[in-house]
Amino acid sequence: MGSATSGIGPGLAGALAAALVGGIVWGYVIIKTDYEVGFLAWGLGFVSGYAVLTLARGRRSVELQVIASVGAVLGIVIGKYVAYVHFFQDYVGATFGEEFASRVSYFDTQVVRYFVDDFTSLLSGFDIVWCVLAVATA
């Protein structure tokens, strides 16, 4: 393997870690503020790019840039999902009671389906702008 491609595995690990941790943190901020702080979504691009660059030991390639960009977008989706599930639990609790709300899980395939079905309605023009900035930064 060439020097550019030898950083793909570690770079991918960095992007996935950044997406997971960054997405959870951003989702938590959304929950606590009841507001999608867009510049934090943009920051996911920086975090993903930095994680890829660090774990790839400074190697740079188009493949690593794509991995960082996908990590940034994945982090944004994870953040939206974390917030979605939280607010979905609130809705279920208010509508059907806390017993039913306690059954709503982040890992429930039906909740994932609801999220996928509702995803386009969760997006705004600003989401597109922050996503583009995150990808450009990554």
What can you tell me about this protein's structure?
This protein has one domain. The protein is mostly helical and 138 residues long. It has helices spanning 8-33, 38-55, 62-96, 98-101, 109-122, 125-137. The longest helix has 35 residues, at 62-96. Helix 1 (8-33) packs antiparallel against helix 2 and helix 1 packs parallel to helix 3. Helix content is 80%, strand content 0%. It is elongated, with a radius of gyration of 17 Å.
Question: In terms of topology, how is this protein built?
Answer:
Blueprint: H1 8-33, H2 38-55, H3 62-96, H4 98-101, H5 109-122, H6 125-137
Helix pairs in contact: 1-2, 1-3, 2-3, 2-6, 3-5, 3-6
Broad structural category: mainly alpha
User: What's the β-strand tally?
Assistant: 0
Radius of gyration: 17 Å
Shape: elongated
Specify the number of helices.
6
The figure for the number of domains is: 1
Helicity level: over 70%
Main sheet overview: none
Average of the residue pLDDT scores: 91
Instruction: Give the SSE string.
Output: HHHHHH
Strand content: under 5%
Distance between the termini: 24 Å
Low-pLDDT runs of 5+ residues are none
